[in-house]
Amino acid sequence: MTDEKKQAETQAEKKDVRGRSDASGHEHDIESGEVVEEELVEGAPVRRKGIYLLPNALTTASLFSGFYAIVSAANGVFDNAAIAIFVSMILDGLDGRVARLTNTQSKFGEEYDSLADMVAFGVAPGMVAFFWSLNSLGQVGWAITFIYVAGAALRLARFNTQIGSMDKKFFVGLPSPAAAACVAGLVWCFHAMEPASWLTLMTIIVVGGCGVLMVSNILYKSFKDLDMRGRVPFAAILLVVLMFVVVALDPATVLFSGFLVYALSGPVFALFRKSRRSAGESA
Fold first, then answer.
1. Of 95, 141, 122, 245, nearest to 184 (Cα)?
2. HSE on the CB side for 280, CA within 13 Å?
3. Where is the chain membrane-spanning (predicted)?
C-alpha cells in the first residue's frame, strides 16, 4: 500500500472518530454527541463543538411560548394563549438580530429557529383557534385547522429553500408570524364573547384564509429595506411613540386590526397591479 493511500485512510478514520454527519448536514462528535460546525477564522476552517447560548436561548423561549399557548388553549384560558403567541413573535424577531449583532449565526441556529417557528406560528395558532371555536364544527373544524397548519409548514419550507434567491423587499406568501398574529388577535379580541354563528364564520375565514395566503404567490412588503441606523425626521420618532400609545390603549384590537390589514394588503395590491397591467395592454 502506498504512503498516499495510508494517509488517506488515516484521515478518514480520524474524521469517523471525530464526527459523523446527520441528515441535515451537521456533524456530531461521537463521544460527546455534541454538534460540530466548521467556521472560518482568519480565512482558515476551524471545527467548533457546541452551540451558541444566547440566540438559541431566545429561540427556546419562543418555542416555549408556542407550547404554552397550546396548553393554555386546552385549559380554556384563551387570552393567555393569544398573548403567548405574540410573545413568541417578539422573541422570534430578537433571536436572529441578536445572532447577527453578536456574530453567533450558525446552521444549527437556522434549523432550530425554523422548527420553533413551526410550533409557535403553525401548530399553536391552529390549535388555539380549534379549541376556541372550530372544535364545534367537528370534522370541518379540524380540516380547517389542518389547512392552516399545513400552510404554515409549506410556507416555512419554501422560505428556507428561497433564502438568498428572492428580493429581500418582498415575501412570497403571507409570512407565518403575520398569519399567527391574525389568528391570535382574533381570539384575543373575542375570547370573552359567547359562541355565535357569525363569530364561527369569521374564524373559518381568518384561519382558512391565512392558511391559503401563506402558500400563495402573492407578494408582501417585508420592510427589510428600511434603514434603522440612518437619520430620520423628528416626526418619525413621534409617530413611533404614538403607535406604542395606541397599542397600549387596546392591544388586542389594534394588533388584530393591524395584522389583518397587512394580510389583506397582499391581495389588494395584487389586484391593483393586475388591473394596471390590463389597462396598459388595452391602451
1. 122
2. 6
3. 51-71, 170-193, 199-220, 232-249, 255-272
Distance CA(124)–CA(184), nearest Å, equals: 9
Order across the sheet with 27-28: list the strands. 20-21, 27-28, 35-41, 44-49
Spatial CA neighbour of 59 closest among 33, 31, 91, 30: 91
Cβ 85 vs Cβ 141: under 8 Å: no
Written as one letter, the residue type at 186 is L
Query: What's the pLDDT tens digit per position in 193-250?
Result: 988 999 999 999 999 999 999 999 999 988 776 666 667 677 778 888 888 898 899 9
Task: Kindly calculate the radius of gyration of the chain based on its CA atoms and give it in whole angstroms.
Answer: 23
| Residue-wise DSSP of 24-40 | TS-EE-TTT--EEEEEE
Strands 20-21 and 170-172: unpaired
The DSSP letter of residue 230 is S
99 phi and psi angles, rounded to 5 deg: -60, -40
Q: Is the CB of residue 220 less than 8 Å from the CB of residue 155?
A: no
pTM comes to 0.79
For the segment(s) 53-269, the CATH number from 3.40.50.2000, 3.40.50.12780, 1.10.10.350, 1.20.120.1760 is 1.20.120.1760
Q: Distance between CA atoms of 218 and 222, rounded to whole angstroms?
A: 12
